[in-house]
Amino acid sequence: MSSKNSMVPEAREGLNRFKMEAANEVGVTLKQGYNGDLTAKQAGSIGGQMVKKMIQQYENNLK
Prior knowledge:
- By secondary structure, this protein is an all-alpha fold.
- The chain has one domain (about 5-30, about 40-60).
- It has helices at about 5, 10-25, 40-60.
- Helix 2 crosses helix 3 (about 40-60).
- Helix content is about 70%, strand content about 0%.
- The longest helix is centred in the C-terminal third of the chain and has 23 residues, at about 40-60.
- The chain is globular.
């Protein structure tokens, strides 16, 4: 089973919103669906921003 089919639908929607928000914060324009035209730098900056925000949220929850 692929990871695409194993995710809870509500989780997929939340992750997509989170990804769009992170992309907006780093100045990368994403479109719905396939974004294969992104450079590795752009994709990495989106992923890095997502991780940064997840760490911040975790640290805030520890307080």
